[in-house]
Amino acid sequence: MSLNSARVESLKDIITRPTRVISYPKKADGKPLYTSEFFGENVFDLQQIAKALPKPAYASFLKQMRGRQALDRATADAIAHAVRIWAMDRGATHFTHWFQPQTGTTAEKHDAFLSLKSTFTAAGEEVTAIDAFSGSQLMQAEPDASSFPSGGMRTTFEARGYTVWDTTSPMFIQEGPHGTSILYIPSVFISYNGDALDEKTNLLRSTSAVSKSACELLNLIDPVPVGAQPKFSHVYTTLGTEQEYFLIDRSLYALRPDLKTTGRTLIGNLPPKHQQMDDHYFGHVPSKVMATMSEAELELFRLGVPVKTRHNEVAPKQFELAPIFEEASLAVDHNLLTMDVLSKVAHKNKLKVLFHEKPFKGVNGSGKHCNWSMSTDHGENLLDPTVKPETNYRFLLILVAVLHAVQQHGALLRTSISSASNEHRLGACEAPPSILSIFLGQHLNEVLNSIEESRPIKNFSVPEIQTIKLGGTVLDVKVATLPSISRDLTDRNRTSPFAFTGNKFEFRAVGSKQSPAFPVTVLNAAVASALQDVTEALREQMGDKPFPSDADKLTVIKKFIASTKNIRFEGDGYSDAWIAEAEKRGLPNIKTCPEAFEQLLKPSHASMLTKLGIFSQSELNSRYFIMNERYAKDLLVEANTMRTLLAQQILPAAFEYRGSLAKSIQILNTIEGEQQSPELEALKGLTPVVKELQAAIAGLDEAIAKLHAIHDDAVAEAKAASDYILPAMQAARSAADHLETLTADRYYPIPRYSELLWF
């Protein structure tokens, strides 16, 4: 079967394939279970641990979770025994330490609960099969670390690494083969010398840094009597990750070598209709997609992942799933679990999830909007402005600390979202630009401006802010049946990479494919450092007084409002005027990934990260090497994939079409005599484009050779990939896309955008 025939058969299969049907959980009387009745049933959470452990052992475990003591062997053994029984009763045969190496995904190695016990008698050794799981097996495992990125911190022959149970994230089971299941133990991944080899270790360090810095500030401005315990002992960052993704048919995906290898289409033209009608966004969810969404949500509910929202996104075949806010490190685990479950369920439904930030040229890319805030151990959201933010000095101190964090380390935040894939998305089709700025909204901007200028707030009244009255008269048409609705303090700005959205900040620039761990780690670190700066300024202002007065707080707030003015921007982030304005303000406009990676080792950023204990200098050097190496490899894989696709499928299809035209011309000339037939005109139009593509392929070969000529220098390779590979691929794509418009459909070997983007 030719590729073209396979393409046609795939399209037929899409039309005739039945939708997969699953059973929703039901009660004994046949009625459906409420979601809350089975939510988290596959999670070994604190409630399960409390049931399984004696009270002293459970109290000991809680102290360990809160960082007050080490986990003793007896408690670890008790938890291991309890979780083994719980998991095996649910079909588990294996366990795995689930961790997040710096590969952009998760990793796992499965071990069976099965063990052998030897008993020696007079008759000899008797071997008995038993099921066992010890506290030491729960606490740590030893995977081969030599094949994971380490950035030169260790040599390949030094293979040892450790996965260590992260007790703050609950264990869970997932479906295995043939009706079995697997126990997952969320873990960190460290080297033999204790260096972080993963994404989670640094994230946990950053959350501790935020807690320490925030508690110091809060206890300073909200003191208790001498000798009493401080009011605030723990502050945690919260995170909600809106996950965007594309869903396409798996049979068509299998016919696109570029999608299979790189996650994006390296060639292809937009169909006549794509997203320009704005009719896909929030539209009716296609039945195949709804079936996949519902099945994935069912699995996620069982895993304790609080998914809340689902809808069509802007581009055809683009969708979004969003959860309820959780503590940041748990939210990261749940986001990675969500991506994994979506992929598995889509496969069962003969669909393919694309998490690449820009799988299709010319339509919206996908992001992972990270909604970030801070909460106290009393459950208070520190970024809640309340009704009168102008007099809420605690909120204003936290707010200016965040502004200061982005002002000082915006370039580092740009580093955290830099990748070969996200580079295609930033600044295009509703994606935020690469210049980091903060959108606060009209009301909060006015609040800050009025404080800085020591004047009353202009043009705002509380009732006006709180409600929108739809029941009044609009253009003399009464709509009295419609109720009044609440109005947020701020509007939304889709062109802002970091926007305040009511009681949180939305870091919109994070890419859909990447783990949110590193961007959130950097954000946490920057905020922790900024909170220290605000606290220090407050101590200087209050002098010898035991606690700051409102006047002291206001003076410090004014100081940071003035110093962070440049980072605040309310306008269109896509405009050329903003690029010029940002340059005047001194905001970095980092255009390429290699340039962004350099920020990681810049002294002002590196010293902040190491001073807080979030990274060691060797870990920073390692990550810098890994990011450059990964970028160069990603582009090299794309270039080689593109070269193969063009040379082995696209050009031969064009040659076959040219041959068909030439044969037709020859036959027509025999019948009608030589003349300028339409076929000859088509052939003349095709030939120069074919030659252009051949030249572009030669240019690709040259660019690839330049990259191969560099040895053992990841930084030089990344720069060469940016300087040579990207332009060569752009030239090749331009020629290939032109050729697609000229090649008859019956000869075109791979699915076109018109087939990929519509069910």
Automatic annotation (TrEMBL):
Protein name as it appears in the record: Glutamine synthetase type III N terminal-domain-containing protein
One Pfam family in the UniProt entry: GSIII_N
Domain (GS catalytic): residue spans on this chain: 199-650
Species of the source: Lobosporangium transversale
Start and end residues of each GS beta-grasp domain: 93-194
Organismal lineage: Eukaryota, Fungi, Fungi incertae sedis, Mucoromycota, Mortierellomycotina
GO BP term, example: glutamine biosynthetic process
One Gene Ontology term of the molecular function aspect: glutamine synthetase activity
PANTHER family hit by this protein: GLUTAMINE SYNTHETASE (PTHR42974), TYPE-3 GLUTAMINE SYNTHETASE (PTHR42974:SF1)
Family recorded in the similarity comment: Belongs to the glutamine synthetase family.
